[in-house]
Amino acid sequence: MTSLRIGLMGGTFDPIHNAHLFIAEEARRVFGLHKVLFIPNGAPPHKAGRAVASPEARLEMTRLAIARNAAFEVSDVEISRPGVSYTVDTLKVIHKLHDNATLLYITGIDTAVELMTWKSPDEVMALAEFIAISRPGHSISQLDSALPERYRKRVHTLESAKLNISSTEIRKRVSAGSTIRYLLPDAVLEYIERNNLYR
Ligand code: ATP
Ligand code: MG
Predict the structure, then answer these.
(1) 86 compared with 83, residue with greater pLDDT
(2) What is the pLDDT of residues 46-77, one digit of tens each?
C-alpha cells in the first residue's frame, strides 16, 4: 500500500491568484500528489500589522478559486485557530487527520529561503518535505546559502514557468482602478467587486 501524498499550499491568499493555482497544479503533476490542500493563514506571523481582507473573505475566495479542480481542497485549520498561525502546528493537525500520509509543503522560492525563520524549523522539516518552485526575481540557487545542508535535503526544487503575479500587485491594481481580469479566476474577481475589496 503506497501512502497518500498530500500537497499543502499555505498562503495569505489576499487575494488568491493564478500563480498560486499554477504552482499547486504543477507540483501535483510533477510530484504525483493525490491532492493539494489550500490553507489560508489566520494571522500570518510574517505579515503582522499588514492590512488584509478578513480571514472569512480570504477563505471564501480560496474556495471559489479551487472549485473547478477535483484534486484541490481548502482547509480552514489555520483560519479557525485563534491567534498567530504557525506551520509547525498546522502540520501536526494535518498529520493527525491523515495518518501515514506524506506531506509535501509547496512554496515559491521567496518563501522557501525564509524557512530558517519559521517557528521550530527542525520539527517543520521532520513533519514535511518541501517543494520550492521558481518565482520571478528569485533563483533556486539562493536556497543553498539560505538553508543548512540537512534542511536543503528535504527541499525539492522545481524550475517552472514563472508567472509574474503577486497579491500585492493585484491589490495595487484594484486600488488604482486597473484591470485584474485573467490574473485570477473570474469567480474571485467577481467576489472582489461584489464586496468592494482592496479599493
Ligand atoms: P503578497 O504579495 O501579499 O505577499 P503573494 O502573491 O506573495 O502575496 P502569498 O499568499 O504571500 O502570495 O504566497 C503564498 C505562496 O505562494 C508562497 O509560498 C509564495 O512563495 C507563493 N507564490 C505566490 N506568488 C507566486 C508566483 N508568482 N510564483 C511562484 N510562487 C508564488
Ligand atoms: Mg508573499
Answers:
(1) 86
(2) 655 564 799 999 999 999 999 999 999 999 99
Any ligand 1 atom below 6 A from CB of 62 = no
* 107, 134, 45, 166: CA torsion to nearest 10: -110
| Contact 113 CB / ligand 1 (< 6 Å) | no
Q: From 30, 102, 78, 60, select the one nearest 197 (Cα to Cα).
A: 60
- Only one residue has cell 503533476, namely 29
- Is the pTM higher than 0.90? yes
CA 110–ligand 2 middle distance (angstroms): 8
Which ligand number lies closest to the CA of residue 15?
1
**Which of 17, 110, 163 best tests ligand 1's pocket when mutated (most atoms within 8 Å of CB)?**
110
Percent of the chain with pLDDT over 70: 95
Ligand 1 atom 25: residue of nearest CA: 19
166 sits in the region (left: phi over 0; alpha: psi -120 to 50; else beta) called beta
